[in-house]
Amino acid sequence: MIELKNIFKYVSQGGNQVFLLKDVSLAIEQGDFVSIMGPSGSGKSTLLNVIGMLDTFDEGEYRFLGQDVKGLKEKQRSEIYKQNIGFVFQAYHLIDELNVYENIETPLLYKNYKASERKAMVSDMLDRFNIVGKKDLFPNQLSGGQQQLVGIARALVSQPKLILADEPTGNLNSAQGEEIMHLFQKLNQEGVTIVQVTHSEKNAEYGKRIIHLLDGRLEK
After folding, report:
1. d(Cα 198, Cα 163) in Å, to the nearest integer?
2. Are 100 and 131 spatial neighbours (Cβ–Cβ below 8 Å)?
3. Could you tell me if 125 and 187 are in contact, meaning their C-beta atoms sit under 8 angstroms apart?
4. Domain hosting residue 193, numbered range
5. Cα–Cα distance between 36 and 165 in angstroms, integer?
6. More confident residue, 188 or 12
7. What is the DSSP string of 51-86?
8. What pLDDT score does 73 carry?
9. Whether the Cβ atoms of residue 133 and residue 107 lie closer than 8 Å to each other
10. CATH number of the CATH domain containing 132
11. Count: domains in the chain
12. pLDDT tens-place string over residues 36-73
């Protein structure tokens, strides 16, 4: 499903090249559940953003579902993302002007679902995450944990083939966090591919394999 070959990403700082990713090669099969670990600044979120096509890379090759990502126009990349990927962001990225219901519904608008189908799917998510009572509230009226749950609900609502999660339980209490990890495990058993970035050994163990990044490199 995902094939990264010799990926480099760097930025220029004061005339020097600073590597964010160094020679990363990684294959992820459909149905895999991969946990990415490493210290802060090791390139974990950058790697996740490259996989999710939210960030470009400078050298190397990336194939997603057999397609060469580098050769795609931005519109094509965006279309592949909308059709296949659900992203759980560490910083939520909810749309301030939309209420909880509308935020969760957003990905469905790109997939041409009928209004009745959208309503049923959003209701299912509100129910699943126990946030029915919050559906008319706006992000600034929610706690960090509630915003995180809305972000996760939005990522899952369109039943994506691939879920990318950046510290998905970072703002949740331990009971909520465990619930989310069990949900991810269940989705994975149903065939959804999951790649998560986490600092938590416990959460990492939910994955089928754990990979470690250090200074932008995959540790062997």
Report:
1. 14
2. yes
3. no
4. 2-218
5. 10
6. 188
7. HTTSS--SEEEEEETTEEGGGS-HHHHHHHHHHHEE
8. 92
9. no
10. 3.40.50.300
11. 1
12. 999 999 999 999 999 999 999 999 999 999 999 998 99
